[in-house]
Structure formats: structure tokens, C-alpha cells
Amino acid sequence: MAIVNADRAPYSPITSRPKLRWPNDARVALWVVPNIEHYEYLPMSQRARNPWPRTPHPDVLNYGIRDYGNRVGVWRMIDVLDKHGIKGTVSLNMANYVHYPEIFKACTEREWTILCHGLYNTRYHWNYSEEEERAAIKECIDIHGELMGTMLPGWFSPAVSFTLNTPDLVAEAGIKYYCDWYHDDQPLPLRTNHGPLVTVPYTMDLNDSVLTLKQHEGADFVTMIKDTFDTLYEEGAESGRVMCIALHPYIMGQPHRIAYLDEALGYILSHDSVWKAKGDEIADWYTEHCTEHYDAHLRETD
């Protein structure tokens, strides 16, 4: 039986928790998440919504915009992250690495890690039965094992299409961290029927999707990133914070935007006490050094 979502993460004010300390006493754990996705040209019928709003299919306009990211934008993004010595945490539709071995090779050579984003970004998990979702998660784990020879470390549902069962199924599968919930500025353990599951804060604010959804542009995004960093950096002197920057190659990889990503990362990394981390590294550190103290804190305040 699924746990009611409101009971998964007991309320805890960030101001009253045990102090969180990152490696080398960093104030901010910065993780950069390129969403390297694959959208099907002719997707299967979905129960929740049509993946392509323009009908009849094929929706060449929307497909082509996203295909640009895999052909062009991702390579610009890789260059910028290389310049700043950042190893990405790829929010990956697993089919992407199968369809585009060149992208797989480039990311693995750089030791970028995978945060699974489902199989395709046009195959949603909304309205899946428990067995259907379990099978979908297992398929992604199997592909990761074939490609990487290791266990899949993180899960972020395709198009954030989670169900009431998702956290339980992710924990049941042995995946160690989860990103459908981005409700805090620190990692937190999420209650599941199979033990705690660490949530690593993703973002929908510092997400380049706002450039298309809210009609912002690159300069606006830089301002948002700098202002967010300044606040988290100040707060992080007291207790560590997580800062995620979520990117899409078809958005931030456009020629009129890519320089703004370079500017934003340069600003952040001009400061000391910033940990350039990957999602699994944040989860591992928190699990080893912080979970026990946080659990004790919850028991004391319950």
C-alpha cells in the first residue's frame, strides 16, 4: 500500500535541523543537470496527455526543436561544462544513449553520471499500475547495467510523471536517490515501504525551461542563477545548501544563450567553498554523514 505523499517527508524547518557540512566545509553543493532526452517522432498513445500538442502527427515543429539539442546544443553545453571542470549529472532518457552512441561516449569519457529520466520523454508514467511502473523502472535499470556495468544510482520520472507508488518502487529496486520531489534546499530522507530514500533537490526555478515557458531570455536566467547563489552561499556558511542548475540542450544550447551559461558558472566558481558535485556524490555524502543525525532530530521533535 502506498504511503500518503504528505507522510513521506515529515515537516522540519531548515533553520532548526542539525548543521549540514559538505566536504572541505563547502557552503554550497553545486550540481549541474543536463536533461539529455529523446522524444519519439511518432509516440505511442498516452493515457494522460498527448506528447505533441500539434495534431495530426507528426509534430515536426516540436520534434525538430528537441532534436536540435541532441545534434547541436549538447555539444556546446559539454564545451562549457568542460571549461569549468564540471562533471554533469545527466537526467537521461535511457533510449538516448542507445540511439546516439556519440553522446554516450562523450558523457562517459567525462565521467558524467546518470540520473535516469525514464526511457523516453514521450512515455509518461501517469496512470501506470504498480506492475507497469515496476516493469518500466526495471527496463531502465537493465539498460543502465548493459551500458555502464553498474547499478542505476538515481531516478527522476520522465516529464516528472510520477505516481503514488513511485518512491516505493524506486526504493524497492535499490536505487539510492530520487528527484521527483524538489521541496527543500538540502537532501532529505523520504519514507517508503522499503526504507528511507534520499531526495536530492532538483529545481524548476533554475531550470532553463523557464526561458520558453515564461518568455525569459539568457540574461534573465543569469540574474536568477546569481541571485539564487548569493542567497544560498550566505546561508551555507551556517549550514550547507544544495544548488541545482537544470538545463536542456535544445534550450540553453542555442547559440544566443550558451554564453550566459558560461557567465553564470564563472560567477559561481569565482567563489571559494563551492563543491562541484554529482547527484550520486551528494546522496552518498548525505547518507554517510547526515542521515543518522537528521533521524535523531526528527525523533526528538516528533
Describe this structure in words.
With 302 residues, the chain is of the alpha/beta class. The chain has a single domain (30-42, 51-301), classed as Alpha-Beta Barrel (TIM Barrel), CATH 3.20.20.370. Helices cover 42% and strands 12% of the residues. It has eleven helices and nine strands. Strands 1, 2, 3, 4, 5, 6, 7, 8 and 9 form a nine-stranded mixed beta sheet that branches. The longest helix has 24 residues, at 60-83.
Spatial extent as radius of gyration: 19 Å
Could you describe the largest sheet, including whether it forms a barrel? 9 strands, mixed
- Average pLDDT confidence is 94
CATH architecture: Alpha-Beta Barrel
Total domains, how many?
Answer: 1
Distance between the termini: 24 Å
Shape type: globular
Helix content: 40-55%
- Per DSSP, the total helix count is 11
In CATH terms, what is the fold-level topology?
Answer: TIM Barrel
Segments where pLDDT lies below 50 for 5+ residues? Answer: none
Tell me the total number of β-strands: 9
State the CATH superfamily name: Glycoside hydrolase/deacetylase
CATH class: Alpha Beta
Strand content: 5-15%
What is the chain-wise order of helices and strands? EHEHHEHEHEEEHHEHHEHH
Structural class, please?
Answer: alpha/beta
